[in-house]
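Milestone M4 deliverable, item 7.
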Amino acid sequence: MSFFLLKMERLVFFLGLSFCLNCAAVLNAQISPEPREIKLTVHPGGQYRGTIRITNDSDESLIVRAYFEDLVFPPPFDGTKEFRPLGSTAASCGKWITVLPSSFVLVPHGEQEVIYTINAPADVKGGYYGILYFEKMNPPEAVEGLGMSLVYRFGSSFYLETADSDKKAVIEALVPDKNSLKGDFKNTGDVIIFGRGTYQVMDKDGILISRGEFGKFSIPPKEKITFSVNDIRAASFGEKADVIINFDLGDGELVVGEIEVTGDASGGLKISALKN
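Output delivered:
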């Protein structure tokens, strides 16, 4: 994960890598951490070590500082990430993790190995998330004509889940709406669920009529997304159709719902059976 900051008077703008690519002539200093994501199963009271390799892809020496922030996935839970001050969220893990060295100098096209040590508290359960930033501390670069300066930072995201964590979810609040079927997909576990949803509509003879996707999601514990299966035209008055909904939770885990709908006299739908 890579970001840079544009500072203008008291305003700070966070821009992503797409802007960097459009300004390649300006953004010539690159700090590349590997791996970009660290996913671990941890046990209460356990200690874990690993390394991150930081590469300087530029022609200048870089002064680098390492620090943690909290990593969150806000509504509408579509995979978008946000970063919060360390320890400001319930699922923060950065305070358990030490990094050595926490500051260093990268020579041009050089590398630095950073060792992180995770000391999981004795009472942890569920999922915990953070991002370890590596920020360039050289004097900020001015953007000519804009009255701004650039500060670069690049990060590795941490996804920590305890061995006894619960990854589970339910399909609920199903409601027919004319020729559509709406519902909620709720995270009832204690880790963030990363996945995607799909659906199929079958007619009364089991022939596939339509299929589609709900897209990717990143749902924190106790949160939910609303989905809609649209244009279920197979169920004319008195006829039935099956709507099969699949939510992939990753690692081969699925939540599946099969709903039988029947066309009603008004030209809409009613739920006639739940088969899951």
